[in-house]
Amino acid sequence: MSSFRSTFKFIQAIAIVTGTIVGAGVMGLPYAFMQVGVWWGSLVVLVVGVTMTTLLLMLGYVALRSTKRQQLTGYAERYLGTPGKHVLAVAMMLNVFGAMLAYTIGQGTILADLFGGRADMWSYGFFLLLGLLVVMGINVIKYVESFFTILILGLFVVLLVFAAPEFAWTNVPVGTINTSNLLMIYGVALTACFGLTAVPQVRNILRTEKPTLTYAAILVGGLVPAGLYILFSILTLGVTGTETSPVAIVSLTDRLGFVGLAVGSLFAVLAMTTSFLALGLALRNVLHHDYGFSKFIAFSITLGVPLSLFIFGIRDFVGVLSVIGGVALNIVGIISILLFWRANQGEFTHRWQRMVVSFFSVLMFCMFVVSLVLVLGGEG
Predict the structure, then answer these.
(1) How far apart are CA 70 and CA 68, in angstroms?
(2) How far apart are CA 302 and CA 100, in angstroms?
(3) Structural domains for the chain
(4) How far is CA 83 from CA 89, 100, 254, 326, in A?
């Protein structure tokens, strides 16, 4: 019985990581692949996916050192002080509010296309249902995430089966590599592979299990999305070729008809649902555990801000994702690396360990700094 419970918790932890990572970004990757070609696109996603998984493991180490139910901001306060905590909290709030708003907008559009009716009414219904789950907390969400993540993988298999007759390698573009295209797919991949807020949730689920189980769940949960992204992008390009649209589901619908619309739309809906739940839970826990707000105030802020923005007419899906992906995520990434290094001072037992971790830390730090500079320069 104990072994079964450990296995079930392990699956739930993997689902939390994968569900946090897989979101709206998956729909933009096929178009990005088309710009650079399938081989360069796959390489970029693989490198970014492995690098981000390494950062997840580094944060897992930090989480395992904590005996309290803290979130990333709690870890930041312990190792970087109050200023680090507040900067990280602001970046996280921008990220979560923007993502929850973007998913609310996107869900309404997809559900209206699929079932008819007004997009805003579907958005309100979606927000009400998932907001209720966020209020219920991790004990409910961990089961929902597990079910939906398995369903997402099942839908991908169904999509693969229906798309196979239309697939042709001649449709998959080799592409031409240039600096602007490479930077474009890098930005999309970075946003699509980001899931640092999942680590404290994994730690809470596996708190009574061996530390190695936490690392294993993070490793599997972090790498699965990268593989899924590459396969989905190749599949989409093999079917739609140069007609691939910036939102993949649109072009798939044109080629696969109602099957493509139904399966692809449900795939997108579930991907955004899992991210919405994981991010909403993470921010609620930050406000409750790390800032001492009551549960009522915490979920009121978490849900009230994105809902208010939607009510007051902020409905630009792409624009919202661009802002959160370009600024907030990079700040969270930079602070997370600094956080790990402060937590690890003097604890490397072998020189090679320090060299390996140093290499990945410098690589990730440069990734986030370059991305942040590019975004700020573009906005300027």
Answers:
(1) 6
(2) 9
(3) 2-325 (1.10.4160.10)
(4) 10, 26, 51, 22
Residue-wise pLDDT tens digits, 33-66: 888 888 888 888 998 888 889 889 888 888 888 7
- Please identify which residue in the block is written with the tokens 């897992």: 60
The C-alpha atoms of residue 159 and residue 216 are separated, in whole angstroms, by 29
Q: Name the token pair of 165.
A: 């007759």
Distances (CA, A) of 102 to 47, 274, 324: 26, 13, 10
- Per DSSP, the three-state class of 130 is helix
- Model pLDDT, residue 181: 66
Q: How far apart are CA 181 and CA 101, in angstroms?
A: 28
The alpha helices in the chain, defined as continuous H runs, are 2-21, 29-36, 38-64, 72-115, 119-136, 138-163, 179-192, 198-205, 211-240, 248-285, 295-311, 317-323, 329-343, 351-379
In this prediction, residue 318 carries a pLDDT of 53
Q: What is the pLDDT of residue 1?
A: 42
Cβ proximity of 269 and 107 under 8 Å: yes
Q: What is the pLDDT of residue 322?
A: 55
Report pLDDT for 350. Answer: 61
Stretches where the chain sits below pLDDT 50 are 1, 379-380
pLDDT for residue 324? 60
8-state DSSP, 209: S
| pLDDT for 374 | 64
Q: What is d(CA 313, CA 323) in angstroms, rounded to the nearest whole number?
A: 17
pLDDT for position 219 = 93
Residue 197: closest CA among 94, 293, 82:
94
Round to whole Å and give the CA distance between 98 and 94.
6
Q: Which long-range contacts (CB under 8 A, 24 or more apart) does 308-312 make?
A: 309/97, 309/101, 310/101, 310/104, 310/105, 310/123, 310/127
